[in-house]
Amino acid sequence: MVIVMNHNATDEQIENVVNRLESAGYRAHLSRGIERTIIGAIGDETSLGDAGIELLPGVENVIPIMQPYKLASRVMKEQGTIVTIGDVEIGGETVQVMAGPCAVESKEQLFEIAGRIKETGARIMRGGAYKPRTSPYAFQGLAEKGLQLLAETREKFGLLIVTEVMDPRTLPLVAEYADIIQIGTRNMQNFYLLREVGRYNKPVLLKRGLSATIEEWLMAAEYILNEGNPDVILCERGIRSFETFTRNTLDLSSVPIVKHLSHLPVIVDPSHGIGKFRFVPPMALAAVAAGADGVMLEVHSNPLEALCDGAQSLTPKKFGKTMVRMAAVAQAVGRKL
Amino acid sequence: MVIVMNHNATDEQIENVVNRLESAGYRAHLSRGIERTIIGAIGDETSLGDAGIELLPGVENVIPIMQPYKLASRVMKEQGTIVTIGDVEIGGETVQVMAGPCAVESKEQLFEIAGRIKETGARIMRGGAYKPRTSPYAFQGLAEKGLQLLAETREKFGLLIVTEVMDPRTLPLVAEYADIIQIGTRNMQNFYLLREVGRYNKPVLLKRGLSATIEEWLMAAEYILNEGNPDVILCERGIRSFETFTRNTLDLSSVPIVKHLSHLPVIVDPSHGIGKFRFVPPMALAAVAAGADGVMLEVHSNPLEALCDGAQSLTPKKFGKTMVRMAAVAQAVGRKL
Amino acid sequence: MVIVMNHNATDEQIENVVNRLESAGYRAHLSRGIERTIIGAIGDETSLGDAGIELLPGVENVIPIMQPYKLASRVMKEQGTIVTIGDVEIGGETVQVMAGPCAVESKEQLFEIAGRIKETGARIMRGGAYKPRTSPYAFQGLAEKGLQLLAETREKFGLLIVTEVMDPRTLPLVAEYADIIQIGTRNMQNFYLLREVGRYNKPVLLKRGLSATIEEWLMAAEYILNEGNPDVILCERGIRSFETFTRNTLDLSSVPIVKHLSHLPVIVDPSHGIGKFRFVPPMALAAVAAGADGVMLEVHSNPLEALCDGAQSLTPKKFGKTMVRMAAVAQAVGRKL
Amino acid sequence: MVIVMNHNATDEQIENVVNRLESAGYRAHLSRGIERTIIGAIGDETSLGDAGIELLPGVENVIPIMQPYKLASRVMKEQGTIVTIGDVEIGGETVQVMAGPCAVESKEQLFEIAGRIKETGARIMRGGAYKPRTSPYAFQGLAEKGLQLLAETREKFGLLIVTEVMDPRTLPLVAEYADIIQIGTRNMQNFYLLREVGRYNKPVLLKRGLSATIEEWLMAAEYILNEGNPDVILCERGIRSFETFTRNTLDLSSVPIVKHLSHLPVIVDPSHGIGKFRFVPPMALAAVAAGADGVMLEVHSNPLEALCDGAQSLTPKKFGKTMVRMAAVAQAVGRKL
Q: Which residue of A has its CA nearest to C245?
């Protein structure tokens, strides 16, 4: 870190900062300018901490300069991580599509949608058995029954299943049924849940928090990696801004940035990012063009009757058309669908 | 809700919307304007839902007009709620102060701070035994040992204890030790945790989420109230904005707004809102002037050595001075400290 | 607009609202629900105004339901606007690229860059003669001298010129030299400047304000259109969010949304949106995939020595490669470059 | 500034950065850590610029560490600035109140309101003759006629006048009539206008931009100060956030922060910050408690008929009560009204 001293800091104050840094385990490097003195603290900030420097007399500002994440960093691991499940690779040449309803509603619903998804060539099905809802009066999901229906769907259609866990107490159950365990946007900093999924041997889809910086998102991944689970897939799904026309503001620039800072694969969920089905296909194309390793799309055979998020769901027909167009864009950027 | 039809919606499309509304249980009220037709849907949106209206042909926009919360609403209960713990009232004439360290570190630390807080007349002590930290490498709290130290402090100094729960699995333990159970900003939409604390007979301090609208915050309170626990205290602690000088942007306007929309008491935590101790006292005064029912302040005897959030902690001496100034402002707005 | 009455509004209060609406020129439509009464006000909100309804006793909320823009709306003009300058069309099948340096620095600089741009097939050159700079100590542009250099460049290379105007007093000069007059993000709500360019017969490139909603952006276009200038090109260039890694948050979802709400063409400036050259090419590809009618890119032969925004400028070589890749994506989505 | 090198930067790359810094006029200070090398650049960043360092090979990040403003900085001038107009001081012991209608509508309106304001002891009247309106169809102000009415009001009631300028072409006129020239939020970065008012001998009220950081706001003040006008009064009026219940999010923490960073006086406009009259008085009290040097309030005798911003205007009666309460809070924090 770098310590900027006040313009009128005394020699004694400067010495005091240096002493404190050194007793905390840092080496201190002084740069005396005309207006101010700057002190570089050399050492591992992650383990040495900030030593309370900001509170010492004469200190104006303390600026951290090291990335706080290690295991998630591309510095640590130059080669991009490919998460492999059977013959499906996430982070490789193929852009993977995860499609399905917001919530599991019934076997008929799942089978109908799964059949349509399967036809398009997509390999992974999404569907929530536990639903985080803003209102306690809204449909909260079928819970274990929903997980069982997902498992039946996997068996019948040969699709992989990604589904959300909200509570460490139901994690053993979810992990038993899911191929990929999803951590939703509201739980991105539910640190106990992150640690728990870090102890499982299952890939984790980690959605970006509604108001999480890219650095905080990578720090959340770090919690999982630090427990020993290397298979984290990041998912951009829109952040909160002042714009009210869209449900959220889909920050596609996070895709190339994450790929620069980290070795982890990153996918995009434009359905939640936008919230209106009409604008989902162009943003799915844009996600592929921006370099995403996958796209997650809400698909429902009858959005009008969906128990959750109908307004942002594509019909199977629209989804099929979007798959064709995504394939064309994928090819244009040197990948395939 | 109100349905705005496209400017070129056909009579058939309008009729279709009306039929669907009626079959969902609404009464529909047509207003034909020169440019557009508007349909008012009369009925309880909370239980009837949106009926997928947004997806019907010819519909441009659907605007909800009812507050989605009921139990938290002042419409439901005109009289302001006073949360009473022994002889301490939150939401009454007295502005309550909750003070203490970010994290419980040791018995010596707690006792030292508790003694200084007690002297100022404050009645409630804060201190975290389970700490939500952005980094997995940061101090995570003393866990149960920390709870025990808080209990000892309560016994010795007669202060009430507020402490955070992060995980439904440790809730029974936290509830056993705490006088007020805190739900932190990152868990404001941890719905399973909200439901669980709703089943306890202990007051809950519900911090506003980093990017939660006031409505979403009241909906989170609704989850707790809906399980039968009436004692929810709301806590404004800053929201995320583009400004980077402060840790967060303390939204003091939420105080009079919450008191208008809801009967629940609301307090303010300027320490987390600002993140720099120097600016905490003026914002504490502003919170009292804005009508807050309480103020939560981080106090540490030696902020330099604090294991967490030293930079935003007041020393006991600065805290004592702030108490005196808050008392003056409280009196100026017709309350007392 | 729709007026939502308090749950305990009296009949007299309701009648009072109805009377006021009618005397303001609206027709009022009452919908009495069990919990609340809703009043639909039928009439042209743009000319009739809000009649102060929000302040009447018993009124809880007033919700505008009409789009406040008319001339910019696709309701008004279903066919997309194509801005034509010579044989260059913006808003047609071809995705137009506008490239060049942040600031005009010298003839050598301009000619060097123009030659490289020309080679790639791009048709429009950007370059600022008047520069809005956060600091009064930063390079403020060459002013009229810069305009003259741009004109020489146009003559020599046959490229169209887009350049920014910041002050109504220099507009006549800028309009004399420019093919497209740019209104920068900081002037999106400089209403006198908007009105002035509305009186010229030159296409206007209107950048989205840093914190402007899509609706406010279209209202700014409305100011220009309302003065008689039909040739407005909208330009998404990033909005302000809490994320600090990027200079701004490029909101690509505004592209399909603007094309849905308005008939005006819309282009994207990823250079300012991201602020770091490394991430500009993938976002340029994403812009094309999302349906943008053009892309604006900062290109400098020697970014290291650029007087402005070097960090986000592409070298001519990187720009050339990006053109090839954009052409592939354009083709994939049924357009050409 | 501080330059952070990549973890795998070569010695040659490091040397290259040092050479470039030195040829730009900086002294360079190397700190070699285990993981990375950090280079401190000692020199005046404001005049030396960034030298394109960010683009050099091996550079990961460039962190500016000096405040970019000088004249506005408290480092430059420790004593707080008091803006004096006749016997009215802004920035002194007295908290000054500026009250009046959003827009000048007629002589009767102004005289009626001025009389009521005068009674309360306030010394400064606000009122817009040129109005920045989101819609081109909304009332745009009485222009010069409005200025004349303000002048008549000043003469009759002995109140000082603050009124907004939007266009450099009308500045001579506005400066002739106004005691304090207001720069509105949308023009905070209208740099030509800032420079122009900097050449006048009249105090300038500079509102914070809707999405301006505190640093950008002080940089806007720097533009004015740099032209020779020392009398800048800053005005916090709310920033844009995701919260939609309020018109803006009033960032009261900017008050103590500005007073720490700068010597300029700072006032607060809660009317625009909140946008709903009901919540304006508590926020006015909070502004005084936070240390503001003044409060600006919209007051209208008949908000229902106001041509602009009626919903956020106080009646003279409510304003009178608020004055009494603000006086009590001012006294509680050691000031007077």
A: A214
Whether chain C has a CB inside 8 Å of the CB on B304: the answer is no
> For residue B180, what are the β-bridge partners?
B162
Which chains have 3+ CB pairs within 8 A of D? A, B, C
ipTM of the complex: 0.95
**Within a 10 A sphere around the Cβ of A108, how many other Cβ atoms?**
10
What Å distances lie between residue C228 and C188, C200, C221, C224, D61, CA to CA? 18, 8, 11, 7, 47
Q: Scanning every residue of chain B, which has its alpha carbon at the shortest distance from the alpha carbon of A20? A: B304
Q: How far is D256 from chain B (nearest CA, A)?
A: 6
Confidence band, pLDDT 50/70/90 cuts, at residue C265: very high
CB of B294 closer than 8 Å to CB of B106? no
> For residue B203, what are the CA distances in angstroms to B136, B179, B320, D23?
30, 7, 27, 65
B 230-249 residues inside an 8 A Cβ radius of C:
240-242, 244
Q: Using CA of residue D259, residue D264, residue D268, residue D273, what is the dihedral sign?
A: negative
Asked whether the beta carbons of C286 and C252 are under 8 A apart, the reply is: yes
Q: Give the contacts of B108 (CB within 8 A, at least 6 positions apart).
A: none
Give C172-180's long-range contacts (Cβ < 8 A, gap of 24+): C173/C144, C173/C147, C174/C129, C174/C130, C174/C147, C175/C200, C175/C202, C176/C147, C177/C147, C177/C148, C177/C150, C177/C151, C178/C147, C178/C150, C178/C202, C179/C85, C179/C124, C179/C154, C179/C203, C180/C85, C180/C124, C180/C204, C180/C205, C180/C233
Is the pLDDT assigned to residue A237 strictly greater than 80? yes
In the predicted model, residues of chain B with pLDDT beneath 50 are: none
Q: For residue range D84-112, list pLDDT tens digits in order.
A: 999 999 999 999 999 999 999 999 999 99
Is the overall model pTM greater than 0.90, yes or no? yes
Query: Positive or negative, the Cα torsion across B70, A140, A222, C270?
Result: negative
Q: How many CB atoms lie within 10 A of CB B321?
A: 14
For residue A283, list chain C residues with Cβ-Cβ distance below 8 A: 252-253, 256, 290
Chain B residues near residue D332 by CB distance under 8 angstroms: 325, 328-329, 331-332
Q: Are B9 and B37 in contact (CB under 8 A)?
A: yes
Does A132 sit within 8 Å of B191, measured CB to CB? yes
Q: Å from C62 to nearest chain D CA?
A: 11
CA-derived radius of gyration, chain C = 23
Show the domains of chain D with their CATH numbers.
2-63 (3.30.70.1140), 83-332 (3.20.20.70)
